[in-house]
Amino acid sequence: MGKFTLYLEQYALISLEKRMKLTTMIGEHTSELDLDSGTIIFNNGLAFPFQVLGTESDNTLSWLWGWAEEQTEIPGDLLASSLLLKDWGKREGIEEFITPSVDINKADGHAFSLISTEIIHASCYYRSPYEGGAVFILIFGRDIDRQPPFDLDGLTREFLDLTLQYELNHRSALVSYLRGNNLPFTEKGPFVSGKLATGETLTAEFDEMGHLKTMDGKTVS
User: Fold this and answer.
1) Interval 120-136: pLDDT, tens
2) What is the distance between the alpha carbons of residues 59 and 117, in angstroms, rounded to a whole number?
3) 113, 145, 177: which is the final residue of a domain?
């Protein structure tokens, strides 16, 4: 298993919780990226500073890092985080973070963003679509940080989606979320039980490969 996948396991659920916090604030929305001010503006009046991570192309089915954009209108100061991530990738020896363009079947914009959110300590990430692709950005805002964390339904939904979308160790991903948020949990055989910040409890069962089998007694297909 490569380092990229290990970091994805470590940070995915924590970053998905952060994305949920933004979603709670903006609901159904439209948005505009103001490159001059480095601000994303939502139609409900909320606005936050952002950094550009990179883009996905629907045509080439590839990810292109912001720091690798040769023909771009993006101001250099909005690429500071992508450059920091390139340097981090060099230090950690993670090929996907130092390769300018990556096949999205190997690593897509969401996976890059889930890891990058935590490395850069951003409030969340956001996918802004355009004709032919999408740009992924990191957003910063204390109002986002102050939003409530996952409740049981939210965590269960995002966790199940994560297990379907990426090949990773499900058990490691859940334990990393609980540990990363300093939430109490126990591990006993195939079971992981934890108490969320809401006071709700969850119990997940995993097979010997770390794949999710049941959530709170319900079989996962």
Assistant:
1) 999 999 999 999 999 99
2) 26
3) 145
